[in-house]
Design brief:
Blueprint (H helix, E strand, L loop, with lengths): L4 E6 L2 E3 L5 E7 L5 E5 L2 E2 L1 E8 L2 E7 L6 E10 L5 E16 L8 H16 L4 E4 L7 E3 L2 E3 L7 E11 L9 E5 L6 E5 L4 E12 L2 H17 L2 E5 L9 E15 L7 E13 L5 E7 L16
Parallel strand pairs: 2-9, 10-13
Antiparallel strand pairs: 1-3, 3-7, 4-5, 4-8, 6-7, 8-9, 11-12, 13-16, 14-15, 15-20, 16-19, 17-18, 18-19
Length: 300
């Protein structure tokens, strides 16, 4: 029997609780094999060979959070390891402790926007999902009654379809399959603009105008909102979205209890509400590369 070779593995990470289905691919797998992850035995579910490629499906063991080696050994008919018939992928699998809840990208985006407003405009910035507050009216909208002035409130977002960044053409990707490369079609992402309202308030007219100028400078200076692609994986880099002012500043200098206020809008363009969903697997692909015109999402 030949020495086995591990060439690929999917997925590359899974929960520390184990039980994840792992597919190994390579050459010269025996009819009976042994697979270890970080020295712990995995449950071998099946082994097969198709078109010269060996495949093995295994279920991962429980393991503490770590990056581990994946080891595959051929076994003889009695179930003993065959000397020398072993292949190792170093640091190929990561055991991750699953989160009870994962922070949504939209939540991270709003938190990033709030942090930049606090840093660049005014420390007293808060957020709300509504613009329907007390009895101080600005162009039909009510302004929140704030305990500490001056203050800035971020409201929203509302979602608006974005026809520039979105595309109706399904994604088509070539992915590994049991019988060779296959075509995976995916529904395109649902891409929208996020529309926010900023409400500023102060007891002094001059201070309100200074706050308006600071917000205008912020919107003019920050044409992009940038944040990490994955808060848990800094190596994945950052992503950013186009950010613009929308509409004009609307001041109200005759509010209740001598509170002056203004509202203005800002929009963040090209946010993917989801990442699209698989539609179907197509027939096997014989071409070495497939090109598509599908495009979606924020700026790279």
């Amino acid at each position: 029997m030949a020495v086995p070779t591990l060439t690929s593995m999917q997925p590359a990470s899974g929960p520390t609780s184990g039980g994840d289905l792992l597919r190994l691919a390579g050459t010269s797998f025996g009819s009976r094999i042994q697979v270890r992850l970080g020295g712990l035995m995995a449950e071998v579910l099946s082994v097969r060979s198709e078109a010269g490629t060996s495949f093995a499906d295994v279920r991962t063991p429980a393991h503490e959070p770590a990056i581990v080696d994946v080891e595959l050994r051929n076994l003889d008919s009695s179930g003993s390891p065959v000397p020398g018939e072993v292949s190792v992928l170093s640091g190929a699998y990561r055991f991750l402790r699953p989160r009870v809840a994962r922070e949504a990208d939209l939540t991270r985006l709003i938190r990033t926007l709030l942090r930049e407003l606090k840093k660049q405009v005014l420390a007293n910035v808060s957020t709300t999902v509504s613009v329907d507050y007390d009895d101080t009216v600005i162009d039909g909208l009510n302004v929140i009654a704030l305990a500490t002035l001056p203050a800035l409130v971020l409201s929203g977002p509302t979602l608006r379809e974005n026809r520039f960044y979105s595309a109706n053409v399904p994604h088509e990707d070539v992915v590994p399959g049991a019988g060779g490369p296959e075509l995976l079609r995916r529904r395109p992402s649902y891409t929208v603009d996020l529309v926010f309202t900023l409400t500023g308030a102060s007891e002094r007219t001059a201070e309100l105008f200074n706050l308006m100028a600071a917000v205008a400078a912020f919107l003019n200076r920050n044409r992009w909102l940038e944040m990490p692609r994955d808060a848990d994986a800094p190596e994945k880099g950052t992503t950013r979205w186009e950010m613009d002012a929308e509409g004009e500043f609307r001041p109200q200098l005759q509010g209740r209890d001598d509170v002056r206020a203004f509202t203005c809008g800002l929009v963040i363009r090209g946010f993917d509400v989801d990442e699209g969903l698989p539609l179907e697997f197509g027939k096997a692909v014989t071409e070495p590369q497939l090109e598509t015109n599908a495009f979606s999402g924020g700026a790279p």
